[in-house]
Amino acid sequence: MWERKQLKESAKITFKRFYWKAVLVSFIAFMLTGGMSQVVNSASDLQDTYNSSYSENYTEEYEDEYSELEDAGTGIIEDLFANGLVLFFVNAIILVLILSLLIKLFIAYPVAIGKNNYFMGIREEEKPIKTILSAYKSGKLKSSVFTMFTMDIFIYLWSLLLLIPGIVKSYEYRMIPYILSENPNISRKRAFEISKNMMNGNKWSTFELDLSFIGWHILSICTLGLLSIFYVNPYVESTNAELYAYLREDALEKGYAQESELIGF
């Protein structure tokens, strides 16, 4: 059984060997996945704020005019104008949602796969930063993205039942992005099966591993995120790579997967 301390020590040794590249890759991955999603969400929040503020100001400024129009029997015009505003903001929200989905499909998923490929690769040797784009060069981008999208949909559906089942499933599927980074030709079904077998009996320990980084994340907040950029993010990514390396070896030894499926990095 793997130990947190051992994984973390190995992770430190690995990412410090190629420190600046590891920092840059983890930063790029954050900006193109989590960071970009935050931008889209912020745009959505800004739209909601503008909508609320505009409605309040418009109501105050034209309250008298509204009253006169109603008295004159022209309430239909007001209704049409209001419906037009509603339609505008509904379209804006739909546009933001579509943009968010496109970013997820064509940027976040491929970059996440490429990032995993990089951090697994540097365990053995130096890798170029462009490794983060490996999913785009695999020739199997469509199937990899579909598998990642299916994974997120399943987690979301399980979360609709209760929070706990969603969390459990997220850990069950946790190794899918690593499996895809290693073998983009693998089928969706096998990726799910192998990840499930890998995480069987390891979900709680992995949850504890994640919790062990809370202190670092708190310190990062105190440094306005600088600590995350220059230490925590590459540290976490390297630790997760060490975890996958152990589970991968265990899966091959126990026959959960074949070497023809987990072909290496």
TrEMBL record:
**TM regions (residue ranges):** 88-113, 145-168, 213-232
- This protein's UniProt keywords: Membrane, Transmembrane, Transmembrane helix
Please give the superkingdom of this protein's source.
Bacteria
- Entry-linked InterPro entries: DUF975
Cell cycle found in the keyword field: no
Matching Pfam families:
DUF975 (PF06161)
Q: What is the protein's given name?
A: DUF975 family protein
- What is the organism field in this record? Terrisporobacter othiniensis
Source organism phylogeny: Bacteria, Bacillati, Bacillota, Clostridia, Peptostreptococcales
